[in-house]
Amino acid sequence: MSTTPLEHDYIGLSESSSVPRSSDKLSYSSSSSSCTEENYTSSNKACLNFKETELRLGLPGSQSPGRKPSHGLSLFGKDIENNNSNSNNTNGYAAPSPLKSLVSGAKRGFSDALDGASRNWGLSINGKPDAELGKGAVLYSPRGGLDDKCKIVKEVDVLPLSPKPVQEKKNQVPALNENEPTSAPAAKAQVVGWPPIRSFRKNTMASNLVKNNDAAEGKSGSGCLYVKVSMDGAPYLRKVDLKIYSNYMELSSALEKMFSCFTIGQCDSHGLPGQDGLSESRLMDLLHGSEYVLTYEDRDGDWMLVGDVPWDMFTETCRRLRIMKGSEAIGLGMYHSLMYKVTYL
Amino acid sequence: MESESKRKKESPNTAELAVTASFPDEVLEIVLSLLTSHRDRSSVSLVCKDWYHAERWSRTQVFIGNCYSVSPEILTRRFPNIRSVTLKGKPRFSDFNLVPPNWGADIHAWLVAFAAKYPFLEELRLKRMAVSDESLEFLASNFPNFKLLSLLSCDGFSTDGLAAIATHCKNLTELDIQENGIEDSSGSWLSCFPESFTSLEVLNFANLTSEVNTDALERLVSRCKSLKVLKVNKSISLEQLQRLLFRAPQLEELGTGSFLQDLTARPYADLESAFNNCKNIHTLSGLWEAVPLYLPALYNSCANLTFLNLSYTALQSGEFAKLVVHCPRLRRLWVLDTVEDKGLEAVGSNCPLLEELRVFPADPFDEEIIHGVTEEGFVAVSFGCRRLHYVLYFCWQMTNAAVATIVQNCPNFTHFRLCIMTPGLPDYLTNEPMDEAFGAVVKTCSKLQRLSVSGLLTDLTFEYIGKYAKNLETLSVAFAGRSDRGMQCVLEGCPKLRKLEIRDCPFGNEALLSGLEKYESMRSLWMSACNVTMNACRRLAKQMPRLNVEVMKEDGSDDSQADKVYIYRTVAGPRRDAPPSVLTL
């Protein structure tokens, strides 16, 4: 049993404390939980608004989508209120990542937010390169022109992409041993053996990713770069050679053609008014519209929205493509995707 | 319990005594040979000397929960006629990489002893043992009657070892390779079964990755007419599976390979008829990379399914819900959390006989991505499946109220393993600790044997456990508690506690030392990343000579702290095969 570098054990001990799931709070205010290095104990409320509308980068899907570089997409996040446990103590480990609760609570709100915002799911051809393709996240809220519902800012912490910060674990362990309440480690660190899942299972899940990657790479020897393309709801996969396209537009039209039959099927099942002989433009609308999003899995196993990075970088890092339903993409946290990036307030 | 039966049996009057004395040993042995439960046998052996000897001569199976609690010499001396051995080695947290490599639990010394004393050994079941190819070769060559090999969570061997088994074990009936740290270099081992070999009843290689020779597999399956369990690996395609199914209509447990086919697949009807051909399948697993299109082929087979293991299949809620509608007789279900709450709702609605549910996380390390199951799914299952008694549930959020509802619906839990994946997370609605949740569990579920706790927990949880969990045998604790009192409550309050494993909790020396005699009634105690010092461990070791107190040191840590402590009772004395990083005090 080897501990492969693929094992990431995260203990999101960083953030703020737990956030109450505000299913009733459909309106999000732009707040941020970030209380980075500090204790998420008290001053969260202070930390709340605006303080951390920092630009962080690179969460899967945190890029901007949108076929048209118009606005975009909203930001779904959650109201992070920190009237939380921190009041009495935390045992040092208390509520580490409310991030998660926050995020999952937000799940409920998403579809609501989704309805509200003007979305432009679809392939994005936004050339803005990101500085880091890391797991950090950005959240910010382009206030202008968006629904009230969609102004959230939430933020996850920043984790340098590589190397895997094993050292952090060491820092962390003694902290845990100190029996001091609340010295919550700030950034996400890896904790060995947590969650308690057998190595075999972890490696199998991880190697499923790698295997697909290898399969893709295996074919790239002769100057092609075949990647698998799947579409939610379609019974089989296709493979495309990324090298034959030179930009996102070409890729997206090719994919639309390839999977058009399924899209049509899907339309009907979603109760959209069927039309005899869908026109090309209708087709584009469907793909454009809130139905599907094109995503890809990068070298690190992260799912990203297609279109954020320069085409060349994309072809180098893309392992497989997946056309997923918009709602699913949101469900996967791609609410982070943005059209604009707002700089530090 | 043991003492009770002893007392009962020892209170005969003189007349009975006389009878017992003239009772031929052989008859007693025959009678006792009918006893299979090892606990009953333990009790029997304590009655009197005659019974002790009768029991030891008549015993054919032995279960050793901690391979270091006894030595091969002691074992073979006491029990001369063993045919079946089950051995467990490393502490359970080794599954999560908390135990240093080369820690021990090597099977070889045991095999050598068995070769001398149990040449007719038939069955070997190993869990968390270090097994090398040499050991497997030794096993294959020294036990002519060898029939059954089952390996789970073992490591140190490769497919070469399997080849040795396949080649030499002429009487093999069962080869069960579960999740292990095996070096999988090639699938050629499967071709090593001789053409004359026909005795196989169970073949499980689902967790290997290398391609095997499909012709060899097909021939093997054809000639083993008693094959009941076949679990193939991912390399076996749907088409190959179909052929195998036609050759083995008597199958009862099936693990499919890759359930994915390219567009040029045979018609779906073939697949369906292949499954329909096997009318006895009650257990289904595998389904690697399943594509929803082909799932309906299983629907007819699902009617009789009692155990469905989808824990390596990333199904979404819709596809899963459609499948589960066809599984009304399901008793055990393992899934990935990709099925989400909706999928679990479908389970609640369709599987009233469900007894065991395990929900594994598909993506446990990525918190930013919203996914998985929440408390709602669990609650939904509890409403629909009142017979539920075993649960393993990985989730990102939970509430006290939900757990209270769950145990109210299902008060018969024997195993309640809840893992809220973010350590120390409180009830996300109320922001309170999760104490009341586990309080509800122990108060309501009087039959509870195994409990794993998680979330933000104070000492109150442990007070509840100590006070109410009177049948608790195994407790796993991580990132919980406030003070030594928590651990003390458990040690003082749980009479049947056998295994206690603790990590990253603020329990210290006082807690550790409060359990002195208790540890002799337990199999083992594990404490890592707690507040225990070396001195306390030394004190413990000194006072309790029948315990082995082992400390695993991490590099660069404080010398006075005992980073990882593993304490277990033993009659074999301190072990001599520990690596340098493990100190026996």
From TrEMBL, chain A:
- Tell me where it resides: Nucleus
According to the record, the residues making up region (Disordered) are 1-43, 169-188
Q: Name one GO cellular component term.
A: nucleus
- Which InterPro entries does the UniProt entry name for this protein? AUX/IAA_dom (IPR033389), AUX_IAA (IPR003311), PB1-like (IPR053793)
Task: Give the domain of life.
Answer: Eukaryota
Which Pfam families would you find in this protein's record? AUX_IAA
> Entry's Gene3D superfamilies?
Phosphatidylinositol 3-kinase Catalytic Subunit, Chain A, domain 1 (3.10.20.90)
Q: Which UniProt keywords apply?
A: Auxin signaling pathway, Nucleus, Repressor, Transcription, Transcription regulation
Regions of compositional bias (Basic and acidic residues) in chain numbering: 1-10
Q: Name one GO biological process term.
A: regulation of DNA-templated transcription
Q: Which portions of the chain have biased composition (kind: Low complexity)?
A: 27-43
Report domain PB1 positions: 224-326
Assembly state and interactors? Homodimers and heterodimers.
- Free-text function comment from the UniProt entry: Aux/IAA proteins are short-lived transcriptional factors that function as repressors of early auxin response genes at low auxin concentrations.
Identify its protein family. Answer: Belongs to the Aux/IAA family.
Quote the protein name from its UniProt record: Auxin-responsive protein
UniProtKB/TrEMBL annotation, chain B:
BP term (GO), one: SCF-dependent proteasomal ubiquitin-dependent protein catabolic process
Q: Where is the COI1 F-box domain?
A: 22-60
Q: Name one Pfam family in it.
A: F-box_5
According to the entry, every stretch annotated as the Transport inhibitor response domain falls at 80-126
From the UniProt record, give the pathway where this protein acts: Protein modification; protein ubiquitination
Segments crossing the lipid bilayer: none
Q: Where in the cell is it found?
A: Nucleus
Q: Does the keyword Nucleus apply?
A: yes
This chain's protein is named: F-box domain-containing protein
Q: Which UniProt keywords apply?
A: Auxin signaling pathway, Developmental protein, Nucleus, Ubl conjugation pathway
Output a single Gene Ontology CC term carried by this record: SCF ubiquitin ligase complex
SUPFAM superfamilies reported in the protein's UniProt record: RNI-like
Q: What is its main location?
A: nucleus
Specify the superkingdom.
Answer: Eukaryota
